[in-house]
UniProtKB/TrEMBL annotation, chain A:
Keywords: ATP-binding, Magnesium, Membrane, Metal-binding, Nucleotide-binding, Translocase, Transmembrane, Transmembrane helix. NCBIfam families: ATPase-Plipid, ATPase_P-type. It comes from Cymbomonas tetramitiformis. It catalyses: ATP + H2O + phospholipidSide 1 = ADP + phosphate + phospholipidSide 2. It holds the Pfam family PhoLip_ATPase_N. One of its GO terms (biological process) is phospholipid translocation. PANTHER family: PHOSPHOLIPID-TRANSPORTING ATPASE (PTHR24092:SF150), PROBABLE PHOSPHOLIPID-TRANSPORTING ATPASE (PTHR24092). One of its GO terms (cellular component) is plasma membrane. This is Phospholipid-transporting ATPase. Its EC number is 7.6.2.1.
TrEMBL record, chain B:
Residues 140-149, 157-166 have a biased composition (Basic and acidic residues). It comes from the Eukaryota. Its main location: membrane. Belongs to the CDC50/LEM3 family. It comes from Cymbomonas tetramitiformis. This is ALA-interacting subunit. It is a multi-pass membrane protein.
Length: 1193, 363
């Protein structure tokens, strides 16, 4: 296996032989997370900017405008806005990158002790090299991925915190190499040898390698300091297997351990944390994609205008130009005026027109949208209604790209555990030796009872209630279990709970706080807590043993040491976990806990008396929504164990497919087990989940729950969280059909496959037909689909998936049970491909695929690590916050952005077209009627702020009324605000208004004097009048469109118009060389003309009339949903102001409503009482009972 | 919830602003509001329209085209008068044949049809003259006009194609000042008039040609200097010279001309007649017909007009206000009728789209 050359699959490291390692060219430990450096910043960031087609376009325009002969406008009106727009974006990039650089520098120059020249010296992180030994002190971060050789602990154990890696806050235990852990510090530090291990990869939990003792290092010249007798590992020792338990990862920190010594294995960008650093997939919202199509449309219009203009210009110049002596046709200029060369003139004129009418394409749109979205993002992050005080977690928008997509969600795909539930496991029931214990009622049972019309009394609060333990049964408590039928089995059962896990106890049992537990899984924590309550108190874990204080019958305690021989880890394929231990008596026992299916397969065929009855209990438990595990044990013959141990070590040392081999070897010993019983753990629904789900349902959002639970559990949870309701027709698709069973009995695998496939397909089609039949008969019921993981694997196949999708989309609720992470992503993809906007929400690593696949990924920042959050676009602490995120933020953002984009194009069309209309009367020569400064500032000063404010603050209806009429959410998914009709209406409005403004101004101000003193109007004062009309119309049209006015709205809308006049006045006083035509134009010429003022007023009135009429007529005859709700809201608010008891509905907190309000109705019904009589909210759908009363303690 | 409250380090600051709960006014377009808005618009606009229209109607305006007047269309060959020119090209030709392009005088008679109270403004009007062509508008040097250092390199840089008096000889001494097409094509017809009352008394009409330009133009935009190389050479002359001792900022006709017009048809103020003109008065204008509009088939007109507070005779505003006002008023009536006859219950939840869909499905 060992070769001298570095192979692709392996890397070889010579400990303490930095020179020898050099030939492999390992990267230095300098880590840079910056995107750019000083040299590459400009080109790279510019390249990024110019990938946006609009920026490229504006650059072309700006470049063209530098040719004065060609350009109708001065470069000063095209280049500054472009520089500003690109500058803002680049500055943002630079700032962010600089922050990264500072963080990098800080990290790279932090110091660590390195073994050099026979002693430990401080060295900067960036200088340490692969193969060097380093010493990390308590609290320090590991500078690279390190193979731990020794720790200050005599057992070679150390604790690490991996918060930065996976977000888990519990300490993890790591163990130094057995062979070196007992050496002296000096010996360890000077050790020689080589390590062969995998090439760097991004698998945090995997590492395989072998340590070859010092022999090979002889080939390389030794450093002068080195050789001491013990510091070479003995040549005779076989390769020593290395595993993840010895690997300390960069990004983690050392805790509760004085120091560790280890060898650097992966450095710099090879470290696992860096290999994992990937940018989240960039997602774009539907509206953003829509912008592209409008821009294309605008381009078409632009080219059309250019061609019409150029053709007319060329034709006129050719026919009439020779006679226009005042333009000197004898001295033609091909770029402006060339009667004798019309084709060339036309070409040049196209370019001119292209620059002039370029205002059709809104340059500031992208940067404005970016600003608005960042502000929206801040609102999301600042939202108190999405702040979870219990864990001090605010909501986090990790990207600003998708804010508006939140308002268009068709389908929510949700994980169950940790997402709908708290992921706080409580030991609730158990079945031991065929007897079931535990008297509580689960939420599911209560929900079932409610459906049956009964109401269960709340459970008494168990006297032993602690975290993770919600068990109530006197038969087992206080040592009473000894009086039960099989006390020996019960003792085993409890001992198993106390021993069979990977929990690390911390602290002393006698101290005030007692022992605290560092658990990787909440289930295990619940077990250990339960064991403690039953009198099996786990107090201490060392490298080789666990210590349990066992309560004797007389109430005294004895501490027993169990020597842990092996831990056969849990993983998702094995679905079980075992420990092999030696009790003080010397007997070797295997304890195993795992899923019922895997445990039942491995039970001994005889002597398992409680198999059937336990199975019945298991079914009961899962029906009531509990998570079950089976516990089993077996004695192992020492001889047999010794033989097995050899194979185990071999498998553990293998470099290739170690996991597979270990699993196979484990299989050899996990057999012949005796069933002890089963545990039932309750994972409580999070606060407000049923209400939130019901609301989402009422909002017309489909909810698909993808869970690993069994079908029965899933269905029951479905009822508990209001996803399923009694009146729903359930379609259950699974593989438990007679045909499939018959085929399975025959044993032909292929036949089974094809039969199953046919069968699933048939079930889907039948269900679909059934729904169609019901609809045809006018039976309107909600449907629900429950599909099993195995069935799903067939349903996702080509040819069948359409049926599955069609059926799924017909159902108000879909539950997929026993799905794998991959299937979650596949289902998400299926729904996404069908054109539905999907939102995936989950909390665990198994949800990452689905979160990345969906249009929007939401991570629950909860207990199960941060991988889901890292992959997500939005992170919230509780499922119920989804309601606020979608119904308020999403809905608002969608409307805001939609309105904003449409408005942007409207205002630019309006502006661009006035120039075109004017040019019809200016020979299409490309003459502007506006001063260059007006043109430049149009998009920046006078019309941009109001729409930004609307984009950030606009609200159509209050959150309270959005709750009362949740269906209003459908305006997003149905794209009511940004569909073709809306966009068209805005654009036509722009075209109309441009016609009105151009014709009114030109019609009124062309010949006649506009004042008493008889002076006539010139080009620039007419332009000022026209521009005034444009600015006012554009701002007032926005004022017409909104019906939510805060002080900020007033400020910006009226302020923008005022600003324009202020600009005219102030700029008019600038020196003539600056202000050119604007010089005293307004003060002296424009404002003194009564015609100007009257003209502006009537023009604006005519501009706005159609829009006003349209709005009035629409409200009168075809009111949209939000119109009606606004009216209801207005009536409501007036009523409440009048009676003086106005209380903002926004103050009703969801959480509170969840606790005190009736379940199964609209969560807002408690505010309904405040309403003036007779305004119907959505009517209550079922009777009420407080699920949460029990928890309200 | 027995746990002590956690440290709330990350708790977002709470304010009406951050929670999007700023007090807001939420105006609604209810039928009443709409009717009121339209009625108000109507009630305000119609009187304005009436006033504006009556102001415009009270203006007396006389327009007389003279470029096609027989007296102004005499054909001149190099040798002398040979009769009346019938085509524009002949007229164009004949204008060139006048001595150094100085044109010839023609006499136009205008009869005053309505009493014109002083001051009466006199304009010349040009048609089909693209003073707003980009090449034309651009071709000027504001620096030069402002009187900046004539040796500065920016001087005249925008004046193409009329920067040098002689294009073949691009020397600094040859730079036209003021340069550019606008200045070069300076309108140079001149007018003088005599008035003959119905009683037959004839008297000279004093046309006050001062105060026709904007003060800021005279003070700041045009400097006190004499034109050089300006339309001196007849062969390359465009429009008028700036004669005599008059400096640029004293030549108000020039300053008016330099403010380019919006559209190809435009009027520019020529002067002010500070006397009342009675009905039946005959004004006899002696026009020195020099400016060539024949070549591009343009028209030249003399306009006499009184003004009101609103300016000249322009019905546009009055009619616009009347029409818009009437339209609003009738819209107001229509909406009132709709509201009275077919009132929509405000905030009727049964009109919500999903409620309708439900009813439709049930029915």
């Amino acid at each position: 296996m060992s070769t001298d050359k570095p192979e692709k699959a392996h890397r070889k490291i010579h400990i303490n032989e930095v020179d020898a390692c050099r030939e492999y060219r390992f990267p230095s430990n300098y880590v840079s997370t910056t995107k750019y450096n000083l040299l590459t910043f400009l080109p790279k960031s510019l390249y990024e900017q110019f990938r946006r087609i609009a920026n490229l376009y504006f650059t072309v325009v700006a470049a063209l405008s530098c040719f004065e002969a060609l350009s109708p406008v001065h470069w000063s009106s095209t280049i500054p806005p472009l520089v500003l727009v690109i500058g803002i974006s680049i500055t943002k990039e630079a700032y962010e990158d600089y922050k990264r650089y500072i963080a990098d520098t800080e990290m790279n120059s932090s110091t660590v002790l390195v073994w050099r020249d026979g002693q430990y010296t401080d060295a900067q992180w960036q200088d340490i090299k692969v193969g060097e030994n380093i010493k990390v002190m308590c609290g320090q971060f590991f500078p690279a991925d390190i193979l731990m050789l020794k720790s200050s602990d005599s057992e070679g154990i150390c604790y690490v915190e991996t918060m930065n890696l996976d977000g888990e806050t519990n300490l993890k235990i790591k163990k130094a190499l057995d062979h070196t852990s007992s050496w002296s510090d000096k010996d360890v530090s000077a050790v020689k040898g080589s390590i062969e291990c995998e090439v760097p990869n991004n698998l945090i939990y995997n590492y395989t390698g072998n340590l070859y003792p010092g022999r090979e290092s002889n080939k390389y010249p030794r450093s002068s300091f080195a050789h001491e007798p013990k510091s070479d590992i003995n040549d005779d020792i076989a390769p020593i297997p290395l595993g993840p338990v010895q690997l300390l990862l960069r990004g983690a920190s050392l805790r509760n351990t004085e120091f560790i010594i280890g060898c650097v294995i992966y450095s710099g960008h090879d470290t696992k944390v860096m290999m994992n650093a990937t940018d989240p997939p960039s997602k774009r919202s539907a509206i953003e994609k829509g912008i592209d199509s409008i821009i294309l449309c605008m381009f078409f219009l632009l080219f059309l205008m250019c061609i019409i203009g150029a053709a007319a210009c060329a034709q006129w110049t050719q026919s009439r130009g020779p006679d226009m002596w005042y333009l000197i046709p004898e001295e033609p200029d091909t770029l402006e005026f060339a009667p004798d060369d019309a084709p060339l003139l036309a070409l040049a004129n196209i370019v001119t027109a292209f620059i002039l009418y370029g205002y059709l394409i809104p340059i500031s749109l992208y940067v404005s949208i970016e600003m608005v979205k960042v502000a929206q993002m801040v609102f999301i992050n600042m939202d108190h209604k999405m702040y979870y005080a219990e864990t001090d977690t605010p909501a986090l928008a990790r990207t600003s790209n998708l804010n508006e997509e939140l308002g268009q969600v068709d389908c929510v795909l949700s994980d169950k555990t940790g997402t709908l539930t708290c992921n706080v496991m409580e030991f609730f029931k158990c079945s031991i030796a065929g007897v079931t214990y535990g008297t509580g009622c689960t939420e599911v049972e209560r929900a079932n009872a409610r459906r049956a019309g009964k109401d269960l009394p709340p459970d008494p609060i168990p006297p032993h209630k602690t975290k993770g333990f919600n068990f109530h049964d006197d038969k087992l408590m206080d040592g009473n279990w000894r009086k039960e039928g099989h006390p020996d089995i019960i003792a085993h059962f409890f001992r198993l709970l106390a021993i069979c896990h990977t929990i690390i106890p911390e602290g002393l049992p006698d101290s005030e706080d007692g022992v605290s537990y560092q658990a990787e899984s909440p289930d295990e924590l619940a077990f250990v807590m339960a064991a403690k309550q039953f009198g099996f108190y786990l107090t201490k874990r060392t490298a080789t043993s666990v210590f349990v204080q066992e309560k004797n019958a007389d109430g005294s305690t004895t501490e027993t040491e169990y020597e842990i021989l092996n831990i056969l880890d849990f993983n998702s394929t094995r679905k079980r976990m075992s420990v092999i231990f030696r009790s003080p008596s010397g007997a070797i026992t295997l304890y195993c806990k795992g899923a019922d299916t895997v445990i039942y397969e491995r039970l001994r065929t005889t002597g398992n008396l409680f198999k059937e009855v336990t199975y019945k209990h298991l079914e009961e438990y899962s029906l009531t929504g509990l998570r079950t595990l089976c516990l089993a044990a077996t004695e192992i013959d020492p001889q047999e164990y010794a033989e097995w141990q050899v194979k185990w070590e071999e498998a553990k040392a293998s470099l290739e497919d170690r996991e597979g081999k270990v699993a196979a070897v484990s299989e050899l010993i996990e057999k012949n087990m005796v069933l002890l019983g089963s545990t039932a753990i309750e994972d409580k629904l999070q606060n407000g989940v049923p209400e939130c789900i019901e609301l989402l349902g009422n909002a017309g959002i489909r909810l698909w729950v993808l869970t690993g639970d069994k079908q029965e559990t899933a269905i029951n949870i479905g009822f508990a969280c209001s996803l399923l309701r009694n009146e729903m027709v359930q379609y259950i698709v699974n593989v438990d059909t007679p045909e499939v069973q018959a085929a399975e009995a025959l044993g032909d695998k292929q036949a089974v496959e094809s039969v199953t496939e046919r069968c699933i397909s048939q079930q889907l089609i039948d269900s679909l037909e059934d729904i169609h039949k019901n609809e045809a008969q006018g039976i309107l019921v909600d449907n629900a689909l429950i599909i099993d993981g195995r069935a799903l694997s067939f349903a996702l196949k080509d040819g069948i998936c359409q049926h599955f999708l069609a059926l799924g989309l017909r159902c108000g609720a879909v539950i997929c049970c026993r799905v794998s992470p991959l299937q979650k992503a596949q289902v998400t993809n299926l729904v996404k491909e069908s054109g539905n906007t999907t939102l995936a929400i989950g909390d665990g690593a198994n949800d990452v695929g689905m979160i990345q696949m969906a249009h929007i990924g939401v991570g629950i920042s909860g207990l199960e690590g941060r991988q889901a959050v890292m992959a997500s676009d939005f992170a919230i602490a509780q499922f119920r916050f989804l309601e606020r995120l979608l119904m308020d933020h999403g809905r608002w953002c969608y409307k805001r952005i939609g309105r904003m984009v449409a408005y942007f194009f409207y205002k630019n069309i309006l502006f661009g077209l006035t120039l075109f209309w004017y040019n019809m009367f200016a020979f299409f020569s490309g003459q502007t009627i506006y001063n260059e400064y007006f043109m430049t500032t149009y998009n920046v000063f006078f019309v941009s702020l109001p729409i930004l404010v609307v984009g950030i603050f606009d609200q159509d209806i209050s959150p309270e009324f959005a709750r009362r009429y949740p269906r209003i959410y459908q305006q997003g998914p149905q794209n009511v605000y940004f569909n073709f009709k809306v966009k068209m209406a805005w654009m036509l409005n722009g075209v109309y208004q441009s016609c009105i403004i151009a014709s009114f101004v030109m019609g009124c101000l062309y010949l006649f004097s506009d004042r008493k003193s008889g002076k006539t109007v010139d080009l620039w004062s007419a332009g000022t009048a026209m521009y005034t009309c444009v600015v006012c119309a554009v701002n007032l049209n926005l004022a017409l469109a909104i019906n939510f006015w805060t002080i900020i709205h007033h400020l910006v809308i009226w302020g923008s118009i005022l600003l324009w006049f202020l600009f005219l006045v102030v700029f008019g006083y600038f020196p003539h060389s600056w202000s050119t035509y604007v010089y005293k134009l307004f003060i002296e010429v424009v404002s003194t003309s009564p015609t100007y003022w009257l003209l502006v007023i009537v023009t604006i009135a005519v501009c706005l009339l159609p829009d006003l009429c349209f709005r009035v007529l629409q409200r009168q005859f075809f009111p949209e949903d939000h119109h009606i709700i606004q009216e209801i809201q207005a009536a409501h608010e007036t009523a409440h102001t009048q009676i003086g008891s106005y209380r903002s509905g926004q103050e009703v907190e969801m959480g509170k409503a969840g606790k005190t309000g009736p379940i199964g109705t609209n969560p807002r019904t408690n505010t309904e009482a405040l309403l003036p009589g007779g305004v119907p909210g959505s009517s209550p759908t079922s009777t009420t009972a407080s699920t949460h009363a029990r928890r309200a303690s | 919830m027995g746990d002590p409250p956690l440290k709330k380090e990350k708790e977002p600051s709470y304010s009406a602003f951050t929670q999007q709960q700023l007090p807001a006014c939420k105006p609604l377009l209810t039928p009443i509001v709409v009717v009121i808005v339209f009625f108000t618009l109507g009630v305000v606009f119609i009187p304005i329209g009436a006033i504006a229209l009556s102001a415009s109607r009270s203006v007396v305006e006389v327009v007389k085209r003279y470029d096609d007047h027989p007296d102004c269309t005499r054909c001149l060959s190099a040798e002398g008068v040979i009769g009346e020119c019938s085509s524009n090209s002949d007229r164009d030709e004949s204008l060139y044949n006048t001595v150094n392009g100085t044109g010839y005088n023609c006499t136009i008679e205008i009869e005053i049809e309505d009493k014109m109270e002083k001051p009466v403004y006199m304009y010349y009007e040009l048609n089909n003259f693209y003073q707003n062509h980009r090449r034309y508008v651009k071709s000027r040097s504001d620096e030069q006009l402002r009187g900046e250092d004539p040796s500065s390199s920016v001087i005249g840089e925008k004046c193409d194609p009329k920067k040098y008096q002689n294009e073949d000889n691009e020397e600094e001494t040859d730079i036209i000042n003021p340069c550019g097409l606008v200045a070069w094509s300076y309108f140079n017809d001149t007018y003088s008039a005599t008035r003959t009352t119905t009683g037959g008394d004839a008297s000279d009409v004093v046309i006050d040609e001062t105060g026709i330009a904007w003060k800021s133009d005279v003070d700041d935009k045009f400097d006190d200097y004499k034109a050089t190389n300006f339309n001196n050479i007849p062969e390359v002359r465009g429009g008028g010279e700036m004669g005599g001792d008059k400096t640029v900022n004293k030549d108000e006709h020039f300053i008016v001309w330099m403010r380019t017009a919006t559209l190809p048809n435009f009027r520019k103020l020529w002067g002010k007649i500070d006397m009342d003109l009675e009905k039946g008065d005959k004004l006899t204008f002696v026009v020195s017909n020099r400016y060539n509009t024949y070549r591009f088939s343009g028209k030249k007109k003399i306009v006499l007009s009184t003004t009101t507070w609103l300016g000249g005779k322009n019905d546009f505003l009055g009619i616009a206000y009347l029409v818009v006002g009437a339209f609003c008023l009738s819209l107001g009536l229509v909406f009132l009728a709709i509201y009275l006859k077919n009132p929509r219950n405000l905030g009727d939840a049964s009109h919500l789209s999903w409620e309708k869909a439900k009813r439709k499905n049930l029915g």
